[in-house]
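Supplementary Methods, section 5.1.

A reviewer requested that the exact input to the structure prediction be made available. We therefore reproduce it here, unchanged from the version used in the analyses.
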Amino acid sequence: MLSDFTLITHQFEDNKDIRIYPISDVHLGAAEHMTKEWIDFCERVASEDAYILLGGDLINNATRSSVSNIFEETMRPADQKRLMAEMLRPIKDRILGMVTGNHERRNKDVDNDPCYDIACKLDIEDVYRENVAFIRIRIGKPETAGDKNPTYVIVMTHGAGGGALTGGVINRAERYGYVIDGADAIVLGHSHKPFVSQPAKIKIDCHNSKVSIKPFKVISMTSWLSWGGYAAQKMLSPTSYCPQVITLCGTQKEIRVSL
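The structure derived from this sequence is encoded token-by-token as follows.
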């Protein structure tokens, strides 16, 4: 398993826009898992010129000590892991980065991470990180570097903490973004609240004697769960199923996010 601080780099030589689907909180195996939508999505990505980011909680992985109810699981954790790997296999070459989630990080007694097992089964350990992935995406041929060949830095983590209201989740996510210098986008899940915001930082460039404003995107990924179960018990508000698409412009530095 590579260190979180080992940069993941992808080079795309054609100056074409890069389409990326950020995915987390699939919760395969949960009673509320949106099975049809997930199957349709995997088939659609396989037919498109698009890539994906995997932000953890791919499987529900209920245990006796977790908040999930093991008696409501639709399959045992071992089968969840096997089936997820099978579903991702046709699109494994489209995966730009992958991190684990709290549902895979269940057991504190043994060194076992089902998300890493899935990455190993797909032979993509090089783009897997345990806690946070720093991903550099270069567009254009290296020998013709310049403004027309943009480079993007995406920071992806599963996320932590809760909040009944979306505003609290936005504040926590943006605060995390202020800590990381050089990120063009922060991508996270966990909250099951899909949103996009664009805060900014003041950048002081002493080399060029310039002060500028650097915006960055904060993208919170949707979940693949219908409302019920734990959410109903805890009186949590339902969230809308709303997959996002991140578009990295290939001819100038610009990030567009559609919901």
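The helical segments are 35-47, 77-88, 114-122, 166-179, 230-233. These observations are discussed further in the main text.
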